[in-house]
Fold this sequence. Notes:
Layout: H1 4-29, E1 37-38, E2 43-44, E3 94-97, H2 103-120, E4 123-126, H3 144-147, H4 150-157, E5 162-163, H5 164-167, E6 176-182, H6 192-196, E7 204-210, H7 229-237, E8 246-247, E9 262-265, H8 275-278, H9 283-287, H10 296-310, E10 322-326, H11 339-342, H12 346-362, E11 370-374, H13 379-387, H14 395-402, H15 406-416, E12 420-424, H16 428-439, E13 443-447
Parallel strand pairs: 3-4, 3-9, 4-5, 6-7, 10-11, 10-12, 12-13
Antiparallel strand pairs: 1-2, 7-8
Transmembrane segments: 12-30
Pathway: Protein modification; protein glycosylation
Subcellular location: Endoplasmic reticulum
Amino acid sequence: MDVRAPQNRRRLVxxxxxxxxxxxxxYLIAPSPWTTYDxxxxxxxxxxxxAALISSTGTxxxxxxxxxxxxxxxxxxxxxxxxxxxxxxxDLRYITTWPANGWTNQVINFMNVIYLAQITHRIPIIPRFRxxxxxxxxxxxxxxxxxxxxPALSKALGMPxxxxxxxxxxxxxxxxxVGCWDIQNYRWENDGAWYLDPPVDIKLDVSYTLAxxxxxxxxxxxxxxxxxxxGFASLASFPHWQPLPIxxxxxxxxxxxxxxxxxxxxxxxxxxxxxxxxxxxxxxWHAVGExxxxxxxxxxxxxxxxxxxxxxxxxxxxxxxxxxxxxxxxFGMWCQTPQNECFAPLDAYAKRVEEVKLALAEKGxxxxxxxxxxxxxxxxxxxxxxxxxxxxLDHERTTREHGPxxxxxxxxxxxxxxxxxxxxxxxTVSMLAQRRVEGRGGVSAMVKWGKKGADDH
Length: 457
């Protein structure tokens, strides 16, 4: 018997472990695809062999100086083209998604796809916001960059971020075929098309492949449509060889498998398992959401309206204040009891406001003024708000001055920039505002609802 055999085996095991550790360390310290990314030019620093990609004339960047997009052509082949495929570089990989639900859920969707781009080393292409909850058929879509500072976000994350208007000419009439993933584990009975399909201005005819069950929180097809982000990321990182059923596209009736160059999926809003319970632990929020700063226009208008409602002069700093978000209106469809028992009364919000005031006072902060935001349309309810001494904005004026999108933008700005915040439990509008306020060192509280006395404590 060779007494050295056990020792040799131990050496092999130890050597294997050390080898795996070395590979892991090398992977962690290896430069990412964004190592040569130049934040000032919103593009990659092109090596000499790719210099022609910077400008067709060879004279320098084609983007307007000072816009943060001077080097955008190194991320694509040309200015926006009639076909998106003509503009994709063969050596780069891209990822996109479609907007669905209300504006806040679209923000979460875009936040999730940027995070997915981070962990799969793809370039995210963000579509326009879709006016799902805004009355009127003539409401225009709004660019992501109209609301958020894309160059600043790109710089903070150290990665490129594109918008669809930079890839495909939105005036194009060319309908292109593409295969995408459907991450929903059920089909919406009503208005399914707007939930599954891309905005009409992108002109895509999509055939969908239902994502495998192992990418979903409830793989058995239950009622929870949440996607497991890392499970889904594997589809974007590695070719999926197992054949899966494909739903043909609605126009050309093509049946294309999911595109590997332009990885696409319908709404990634459900990109966090158990959204309400896990949101504060969301990797996407901490990796991306915290860095999503308002655009200059939204910040300027938001600060002006905030000063006006608080009675502060234009040359004075905005003082600490408390913002309230009362979600009513559309939440009525979730009520199992009469709405006057289902929705929390204003007294419940008033109690939470006092708790927030006390918590701020312990930090040496005085916040006496309260601004209320809500989707409630009942004038009598708003009169009760006024009786409490709380403030509100005139969004009829906001719409006249800035269009139908700005009541949503201004409310989100005021909520997120507050020192104290009181929101409505389970509302994603309140969740995002809560994360913003707490991230800036503020104090927040949520009001429970659903039955009479739900928030009693």
